[in-house]
Amino acid sequence: MESHVQRRRLAVAAVTFILLKCLRKKSQKRKRRFWVKQIYKNRLESGTQLYAELVSDKVEHNFARMNANQFEILCSLLNNKLRKNDTNYRDAITVKERLLLTLRFLATGDSYVSLQYLFRISKQSISIIIPEVCEAIIDLLNDYVKVPSTKEEWRTVSQQFQNKWNFPHVVGAMDGKHVAIQSPFNSGNDFDNYKLFPSIVLFALVDANYRFLYVNVGTKGRISDGGVFKSTNLYKKT
Fold first, then answer.
1. Is residue 162 located within the same domain as residue 215?
2. Structurally, how many domains does the chain consist of?
3. Would you place residue 210 in the very low, low, confident or very high pLDDT band (cuts 50, 70, 90)?
C-alpha cells in the first residue's frame, strides 16, 4: 500500500516539476542577437549608394523611368511629406531611398521580397513605405494635374493644338493603357481584357505638350475605351 502511495507521489512530483520547468521556459523572453538583421544594417554602406551609382553610369532613367534632374525635383517637392527623423537606435530611411524604392516598384512590379535585397530594407518596411509615398505623390500631383475649369482655359488648350499640331477645335487627346495585374481572388475573368490577360485601365487626357490634364485608373480591363470614359468624372462634366 505504501509503495503504491509513494509511486503516486513521485509521479505527481515529476509532473509538477515538468510543468514548472515549461512555464519558466515560456516566461523567459528570448534574447535578441541583433536589433536588425545584418543585411539591413549594411543599408548605409550599400543601399544608399545605389542612386549615386545609377546616375554615375547614366542608367537611372531605365531604373526609375525618369532622369536624375526629374528625380531630384520630385524628391525636393516630397521632402516635407516623406522625411523621417533619426532615432538613437537607427538612422531613418531617407527620402531618396523611399522615392527610388517606390519608383522601382511602380516601374517593374517587383515583389517586396525581391526589393528588400536590392535596397537593404525589410519587406515589412517596404509594405509601409510604398503606400505612403504613393499617397504623397497623389497629393502632390493634385496641384499639377488639373482639368481646365473655364472656357478661357479650354480655348488656350485648343489654340495650342492648332498652333503646334495644326489640329483646330481640339481640347485634348485621350487614350487608355492596360496595366497588367494579378486577378483578385474569386474574380474569374472579370478583369481580362481583349488580349486575354487581367488588367486595369489607366485613362488619361493630355494637352498639346503631353501634359496631363486628367487621370483615372482602376477600371476593369474588360471594359471598352468608351465604357472607361463614360465611368469617369471627366465624362460627367462634359
1. yes
2. 2
3. very high
